[in-house]
Design brief:
24 strands, about 300 residues, six-stranded antiparallel β-barrel, mainly beta
Length: about 300
Amino acid sequence: MEKGMQRLSVILVLASFVSLFSAFTAMAAGDKEKRFETKNGGYVTISNIVETKKIKDVGYGETMYVATAPVTVTFYGELADDDMIAKWADEDSLEYVGIKNNKAQLTEPVKYGVFPIFKGQTRGDNDPILLEVVASPGEAKQPEATPQVKTEALSASPTPAKVLVNSKDTAFEAYNINGNNYFKLRDLAMSVNDSEKSFEVSWDAAKNAISLASNKAYTPEGNELTISGKPTGKQVTETTANLSLNGKEVKFTAYLIDGNNYFKLRDIAGLMNIGVTWDEKANAIRIDTKADYKE
């Protein structure tokens, strides 16, 4: 999902290797389709690879494959919801490439990260494939793109209050941004699963879209309600993912933190009619699925 929904510090870690990119050639030139095997079945092919380069490893390997445009990436096997291809032109600009019928065409001469995740696999099962697409020899140089306006980064600090879901103490990795508490969408869905207010979460990588379905059981991915060590303050930016409920688009401000989409607790609670109150005596946020949402 969230490519997230997605499950990675794609912006902070993946994009950082752009500035560290340095290399030496490891494969002779010449168009070639390369096959990449994954664990537990499924594989990926990438066309027009002409060389490999060694780069500084910032957490995603030290090999960069270079291919001439247009490049076809083909996935052989049933993809999971959070399979994705990330594209970045610089250290601060990240987009996702649409995958249709298990294929994607890469034409823009920038760097990409291919993250193959097939059904039955989880994040971390397969190594990402780092790819640099270059213009074909003799191809006319494309006009430079108009610089994108950078989204101002905001500070997020770990939420100090404990969270009680139907009176049960539940651990969340939540953050306070501008005085509001933001929770990972899949964590919220997991915490109220099997209750009156259950809701499903799904991710469409091709459309960069999150879909919610009310009154449906949530399908766990396996990494919900986990704490990544000791949470610390972070710089965050607004997510570009679209959100819909039961097929209708919903407009909320959300943030991307470590590759996951975080939404304001009261926005999602109001959307799903889940009771949320502040217990000052207990210094706790109370989430009550038997109660209706009230401002």
